[in-house]
Write a structure and sequence with these properties.
heterodimer, A: 344 residues, alpha/beta, D-Maltodextrin-Binding Protein, domain 2, 2 domains, ten-stranded mixed β-sheet, 10 strands, globular, B: 262 residues, mainly alpha, MetI-like fold, two-stranded antiparallel ribbon, 12 helices, 2 strands, 77% helix
Chain lengths: 344, 262
């Protein structure tokens, strides 16, 4: 009798992780990064969506790849209805049939958004930012105004950059040598010259901000949103609007999961997220660039790196990589970057 | 009676299924820019034999060996004091100080080392943060509590009468330690060394945070391949390779140290 009880308990414990968390019956479930990202989506879009439609919103939070792995496992019977992810990672969702085509007739607000935010028939931009040069003027004697300043000998041992995705600096080096993300090999030699200048590589946003706070990496190739977040915390960092080549644009996107039973509600959510009012709130809260060209941008953020409010700004002040080329090249880029730049 | 074996069978079946899935992924073709995989291939194993990946394997083995030796050297005196002090107060203090790091969590502890090894608290004569030296310090600190507890358990089983007998026969303290205490504590040394070596082989947060991306151990490379390059077959192949290597190394280390201990 006792052994049967033990077996039952053990089986119950083993199957516990397989049981999906209890959710409200009619809730729209959204997959998004945790921390500030989820809080912002909930505060700015989620609450307004529930107020407007009466549909509650619940969240599945996690890292970019954790959520992708979960989505893959649940293919055909998704645990979430709508997904936020970066534009090139969305390509992986699409290639695996995890997204449904967007029904543009249900997204009237999309008529107001920048054409750069239409990433494919399956995913659409929610906000934008740039990877650019950010530095602490109290730790760096001379002004940094352009990408090429990173190659100055005076910055040796001061630079930090992401190693989880080196596509930004690889593209910039290629652009400097007359190439781009497709024929990136043109920038290889240029990039190798930067090796000795790198103090550290970071693999998360938190690590990047810590390196900046502690002064271990006072010059960084950094996400503009994170830099503005540091400024809010009272860390005096300067976000450079490079004069030689533009910042590398990142676009976070939304997509409706294939097989979602709440595709209509998901479209309503996306449509609301694209509205002028919500976009204006996102700019204020997230300090990211709006995709809706009609969104009001506060005066103190207008013209700042990563905040594009006109068609011309989208075109001139940011470089948008080809999503497909980026998704395909990333493994090769990482391998080359690790072997030639990261390795001692 | 057979029914009692069922939980073990279930647990083992889950482990075997996970390993089986890992093996399956390791022999599937990776298609860049896609989650779809191609047919069966051994290309992933060939790819992870590239110098940069083998370098991570070499660094892992060297760091694990150094961590084991340094942890043993640092932990032994503490364990000895813990096992032999007559004062309950001192014993409690050592125990609290030993166990405290367990309750802070690996990430918090490692972040504390980021501050200490960086030049914010102390100015180091040589760079410590984002170097192998710094990672080694973090790994030794991480392993110390376990080693101390294992050694203290082994030392407390040694009857002090043997040491007193050696001393009464004229052996100086150093010789008593070398000829009596150390050999009798060998089972604890072997167990502690094996455990520390094995878990340092799979260390992740310490090299991730203290290595600043420049020091990569096996687990970091698996994460890089799987989570950053989306190369799940490559990550699985490297993990399989690392698993085989770890088992082989542990077998060798186990045999050598057991031979010494007996």
């Amino acid at each position: 009798m006792r052994s049967r009880l033990v077996v039952t308990l053990l089986l119950a414990l083993l199957t516990l992780p397989l049981v999906p968390p209890a959710r409200a019956q009619n809730a729209l479930v959204i997959s998004v990064w945790g921390g500030n990202w989820k809080d912002t989506v909930d505060k700015v879009i989620g609450k307004a969506f529930t107020a407007k439609t009466g549909i509650p919103v619940e969240y599945e939070v996690g890292g970019t790849i954790d959520r992708l792995a979960k989505a893959r496992v649940a293919k055909g019977n998704p645990l979430v209805d709508l997904n936020f992810t970066t534009t090139h990672v969305a390509r992986l969702y699409i290639s695996d049939g995890l997204y449904d085509k967007l029904d543009m007739a249900k997204l009237p607000n999309s008529k107001e958004i920048a054409k750069e935010a239409f990433r494919s028939d399956f995913h659409i931009g929610s906000w934008a930012y740039v990877y650019t040069v950010v530095y602490r003027p109290d730790q760096v004697k001379e002004d940094i105004t352009k990408w090429s300043d990173l190659w100055k000998p005076s910055l040796k041992g001061k630079i930090a950059m992401p190693d989880f995705d080196p596509s930004h600096i690889i593209t910039i080096a290629a652009l400097m040598e007359g190439g781009n993300e497709v024929n990136w090999q043109k920038g290889e030699a240029k990039l190798k010259q930067l090796k000795e200048s790198v103090a550290a590589f970071y693999s998360t946003d938190a690590q990047s901000q810590d390196l900046m706070k502690t002064g271990q990496g006072p010059v960084q190739v950094m996400l503009s949103v994170n830099a503005y977040h540091l400024q809010e915390q009272g860390i005096a960092v300067k976000v450079v609007q490079p004069t030689d080549y533009p910042g590398i644009v990142g676009i976070d996107t939304m997509g409706v999961m294939a097989g979602s039973k709440k595709a209509d509600a998901a479209h309503q959510f996306i449509n609301l997220a694209l509205s002028k009012e919500i976009q204006a709130e996102l700019v204020k809260t997230l300090r990211a660039g709006p995709v809706n060209l009609g969104a009001t941008v506060p005066a103190n953020l207008k013209g700042q790196p990563g905040i594009f409010s006109t068609t011309a700004e989208w075109k001139e002040r940011g470089y948008i990589m080809n999503d497909e080329a980026r998704a395909k090249n990333l493994p090769g880029w990482r391998e080359w970057f690790t072997a030639n730049i990261v390795k001692k | 009676m057979r029914l009692l074996l069922l939980p073990a069978v279930v647990v083992l079946a889950v482990f075997a299924a996970a390993l089986g899935a890992l093996f399956r992924w390791s022999v599937l073709e990776f298609i860049p820019g896609s989650l779809q995989t191609g047919g069966l291939t051994l290309a992933n194993f060939r790819a992870v034999l590239a110098p940069q990946y083998l370098g991570a394997v070499r660094d892992t083995i060297v760091l694990s060996a150094l961590t084991t030796v340094l942890t043993l050297v640092c932990a032994y005196p503490v364990a000895y004091a813990l096992a032999r002090t007559p004062s309950r107060w001192v014993r409690s203090l050592i125990l609290v100080l030993t166990l405290a790091p367990f309750f802070t969590g690996a990430i918090v502890r490692t972040y504390a080392w980021v501050l200490v090894l960086g030049n914010t608290v102390v100015t180091w004569p040589v760079p410590m943060l984002f170097t192998e030296r710094g990672v080694l310090v973090g790994l030794v600190h991480f392993s110390m509590p376990t080693m101390i507890l294992i050694l203290a358990a082994a030392l407390s089983h040694i009857d002090p009468v043997y040491e007193r007998a050696a001393a009464s026969l004229g052996a100086p303290p150093w010789r008593v330690f070398r000829r009596v205490t150390l050999p009798l504590s060998m089972p604890g040394i072997v167990s502690g060394a094996l455990i520390v070596f094995a878990w340092t082989l799979s260390a992740f947060p310490t090299p991730e945070l203290l290595g600043g991306g420049k020091v990569k151990m096996i687990a970091n490379v698996v994460k890089d391949l799987g989570l950053d390059s989306f190369n799940w077959p490559g990550a699985a192949a490297f993990a399989m390779l690392a698993l085989a290597l770890t088992l082989a190394l542990l077998t060798v280390v186990g045999r050598v140290s057991t031979g010494r201990a007996t």
